[in-house]
């Protein structure tokens, strides 16, 4: 507000001074022009009588016409003698100095402002030559005290000052209003930012304009929304990390407890036969292998999430990868006497993907289908092209997934059937790894399932050219 006021007052001061100067100059120039016009008219009216030496007629004309004159008038003859005046009759008969009449008797119009020997105050006067038959025979002096002009200018100056005073009042009101309109949302933002620093992200700035301040308020609200989302995400991640640590601890504790128990039994010789001893060793070996798988899966998942594994993305024939994945799982498929039906589109295009990672996804999903599909049943693998993506679906005839657990199956260590999964040696990280790999390929994963009817796990990959 102070800055606005100073700028506007300074501008008014400059404009007021400049306006006063211009008006003063204009007024002087205008008065001089009127005096010159009046002098020329008087010159034409008295030139004949002055030439003929009829001074009484000249004096009579001047006295009878003075009420029509703008200023005071002198009539001067060719010798510089004042013949007649409209005022100061005592000057009649006074001879003017040659220097004062020299220029006018050369046929020039003379203009002067300031003091003169014949006046006690500054005046503005002009001298117009009286010319008859191409000869200067006298001059008309028209003058007016500057005091009268100054009075008029003083009134004008007062008017400017009054206008400036009103402008100042309006300026103060305007600057106060503008400053308030600017500062109010800024103060609001300051208050909200302090609240945000203390964890309160609920309040927002009300936007009443589309100017720069309104845009700033809009950006501030956007920032607050993003911060709130980020903090919520961080809090969620922190909660997930706590759960992750708890889950890892639980997953590690079970095999370690088992290993500890059997190692103590072996150390203390607590077994009935050599067969029992071999069984204990086998259990310890199985649990150690399980721990290794768990650690490897955790490391693998962490590297994928952090982008530490570079994906070798190139055109890939899904048919080849699917058949190769099935071939790797044939022993388990034969063990359960399962049937694998592969139903792929004939015109299936290449996909943009990393061969090893896509094979890892397929092995994980088909392996789960093998685990949960009853003996002698069928697992179906199908594909289709939809827009610019290739969809792959793995369908099993397992027990299905409860509806309230479908959204959680992609989380780390989530197990629908915990006992059965542990028996199979699963780590509970397979689907989490699948999701992260597909995300790295800019694809999506999903599941459809009904209790007692089985499940369909699917993923999508970008189609190549």
From TrEMBL:
Q: Which GO terms describe its molecular function?
A: ATP binding; phosphorelay response regulator activity; phosphorelay sensor kinase activity; protein kinase activator activity
Q: Which reaction does it catalyse?
A: ATP + protein L-histidine = ADP + protein N-phospho-L-histidine
Tell me the ranges covered by the HAMP domain, including all copies: 180-232
Q: Which InterPro entries match?
A: BphY/WalK/GraS-like, HAMP_dom, HATPase_C_sf, HATPase_dom, His_kinase_dom, HisK_dim/P_dom, HisK_dim/P_sf, Sensor-like_sf
Protein localization: Cell membrane
GO CC, one annotated term: plasma membrane
Q: Which residues form the signal peptide?
A: none
Q: Which Gene3D superfamilies match?
A: 1.10.287.130, HAMP domain in histidine kinase (1.10.8.500), Histidine kinase-like ATPase, C-terminal domain (3.30.565.10), PAS domain (3.30.450.20)
Q: Where is the Histidine kinase domain?
A: 247-465
Give the record's keywords alphabetically.
ATP-binding, Cell membrane, Kinase, Membrane, Nucleotide-binding, Phosphoprotein, Transferase, Transmembrane, Transmembrane helix, Two-component regulatory system
Which sequence ranges are marked TM in the entry?
6-23, 123-147, 159-179
Q: Which GO terms describe its biological process?
A: osmosensory signaling via phosphorelay pathway
**Membrane topology for this entry?**
Multi-pass membrane protein
Which SMART domains does its entry note? HAMP, HATPase_c, HisKA
Write the Enzyme Commission number(s) for this entry.
Answer: 2.7.13.3
| Family matches, as PANTHER family | SENSOR HISTIDINE KINASE GLRK, TWO-COMPONENT HISTIDINE KINASE
User: What's the name of the protein?
Assistant: histidine kinase
């Amino acid at each position: 507000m102070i800055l606005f006021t100073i700028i506007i007052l300074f501008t008014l001061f400059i404009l007021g001074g400049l306006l006063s100067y211009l008006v003063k100059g204009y007024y002087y120039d205008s008065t001089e022009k009127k005096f010159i016009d009046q002098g020329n008219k008087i010159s034409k009216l008295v030139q004949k009588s002055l030439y003929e030496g009829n001074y009484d007629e000249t004096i009579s004309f001047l006295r009878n016409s003075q009420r029509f004159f703008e200023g005071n008038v002198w009539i001067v003859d060719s010798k510089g003698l004042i013949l007649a005046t409209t005022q100061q009759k005592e000057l009649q008969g006074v001879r003017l100095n040659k220097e004062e009449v020299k220029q006018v008797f050369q046929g020039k119009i003379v203009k002067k402002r300031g003091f003169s020997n014949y006046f006690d105050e500054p005046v503005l006067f002009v001298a117009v030559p009286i010319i008859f038959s191409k000869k200067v025979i006298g001059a008309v002096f028209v003058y007016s005290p500057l005091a009268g002009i100054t009075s008029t200018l003083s009134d004008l100056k007062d008017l400017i000052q009054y206008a400036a005073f009103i402008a100042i009042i309006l300026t103060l009101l305007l600057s106060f209003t503008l400053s308030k309109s600017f500062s109010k949302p800024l103060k609001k933002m300051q208050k909200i930012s302090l609240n945000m620093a203390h964890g309160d992200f609920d309040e927002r700035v009300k936007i009443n304009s589309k100017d720069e301040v309104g845009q700033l308020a809009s950006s501030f609200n956007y920032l607050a929304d993003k911060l709130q989302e980020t903090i919520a995400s961080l809090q969620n991640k922190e909660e997930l990390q706590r759960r992750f640590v708890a889950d890892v601890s639980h997953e590690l504790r079970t095999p370690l407890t088992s290993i500890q128990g059997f190692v103590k039994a072996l150390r203390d010789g607590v077994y009935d036969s050599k067969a029992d001893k071999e069984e204990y060793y086998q259990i310890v070996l199985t649990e150690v292998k399980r721990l290794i798988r768990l650690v490897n899966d955790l490391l693998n998942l962490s590297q994928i999430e952090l982008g530490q594994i570079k994906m070798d993305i190139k055109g890939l024939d899904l048919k080849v990868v699917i058949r190769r994945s099935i071939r790797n799982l044939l022993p388990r498929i034969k063990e359960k006497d399962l049937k694998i039906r592969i139903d792929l589109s004939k015109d299936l295009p290449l996909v943009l993907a990393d061969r090893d990672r896509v094979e890892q996804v397929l092995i994980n999903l088909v392996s789960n289908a093998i685990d949960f599909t009853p003996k002698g049943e069928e697992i179906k693998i199908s594909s289709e092209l939809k827009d610019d993506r290739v969809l792959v679906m793995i369908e099993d005839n397992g027990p299905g997934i409860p509806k309230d657990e479908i959204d959680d199956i992609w989380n780390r260590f989530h197990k629908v059937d915990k006992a059965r999964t542990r028996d199979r040696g699963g780590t509970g990280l397979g689907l989490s790894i699948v999701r992260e790999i597909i995300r790295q390929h800019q694809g999506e994963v999903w599941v459809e399932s009904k209790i007692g009817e089985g499940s369909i796990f699917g993923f999508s990959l970008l189609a190549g050219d």
